[in-house]
Structures are given as C-alpha cells and as structure tokens.
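Give me structure tokens for this 104-residue protein.
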Amino acid sequence: MCQCLKNKKTLYIFRCFSDLFLLALIQQPISVTDEEITEMVLFPTINEACRVLDEGVVARASDLDVASVLGMSFPSYCGGIMFWADTVGSKHIYLSLKKCHTKI
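Here you go.
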C-alpha cells in the first residue's frame, strides 16, 4: 500500500505504510468469494472506462470493448468490458463501488 507522489521532474516517489501496519492487515483473516474478487478487480476498470467515455477520449463504448479484448485479454466471449458491464447492470456496479469505497 503505497502512495504515489509526482515531483517537478515527473518522477514518481512511493511512500509506503509501515511494516507494522501491513502486518496488522495481513493477520486479519477475510473471506471473499470469486464473484467479489472479480468485482474488486473489474469494477474500478469499468468506472475508469466510463470516465474516458464521458471525457470524449473514445467515441464509442464498442471501442473500449475491442481494446479490452485485444489489449487486456478480456474474454472475447463476454463481448468486451463495457458489454459485460451492461449485462451486470450499472446499479449493481455503482453499489459495489460505493461499498468498497466506504471500506477504505
């Protein structure tokens, strides 16, 4: 768990938490399902993809689908990350991201 700081020379400096803090986190057992792991990994990616669409960096969601399949090796049978997000549902994604954010 590090914070990334950018200085004037565009170098990145990482400031990490103490080892005692990390040890305390590791010693607390948690149980997560496969679905929760998938959500923790992919939902922030979907959130960022929506931000890219909103800012006009890409023209269509299908462009992100192609990029996710070819660039991230997202399973093509799922149709791409944005298509998959549509099948999951925006309300579920929003509530899951909100729940994860409150835990942090």
